[in-house]
Amino acid sequence: MATDADFPCALTLRFPFPDARLSNIALKAIRVDKELSPLVHRELSTVAPDDKTSTEESVLLVEYKAATNRMLRVAVNSFMDSLSLVLEVMEEMDVDVLEPPSAS
């Protein structure tokens, strides 16, 4: 079994979404792509914002551990490409996802 000593490089990323539904969609879309290297471990979850303004789990939390800085960088770059694609699809396919509703 791998220990923390096997993965000395770590990074935690937090991506806020407008609501829990959207953070959950992103989580489910990205979760299906497993890490290709056994030298990288990734955990995805949704959590409430740190500022306690809401209890809604609208933040996508991504925790990476890797054997080397290079492996961590490659994994995070790949993740960011995937997240970018998910956001583009949300923007095109979902109603009012990334734009605030206009005042009437």
List the topology elements.
Blueprint: E1 9-16, H1 20-31, E2 40-47, E3 59-66, H2 69-93
Antiparallel strand pairs: 1-3, 2-3
Helix pairs in contact: 1-2
Explain what the structure shows.
- With 104 residues, this protein is α+β, with helices and mostly antiparallel strands.
- It has a single domain (4-93), classed as TATA-Binding Protein.
- It has helices at residues 20-31, 69-93, and strands at residues 9-16, 40-47, 59-66.
- It has a three-stranded antiparallel β-sheet.
- Helix 1 (20-31) packs across helix 2 (69-93).
- The longest helix is centred in the last third of the chain and has 25 residues, at 69-93.
- It starts with 8 loop residues before the first strand and ends in an 11-residue tail after the last helix.
- 12% of the residues are buried.
- The mean pLDDT is 88.
- Belongs to the CTAG/PCC1 family.
- One of its GO terms (biological process) is tRNA threonylcarbamoyladenosine metabolic process.
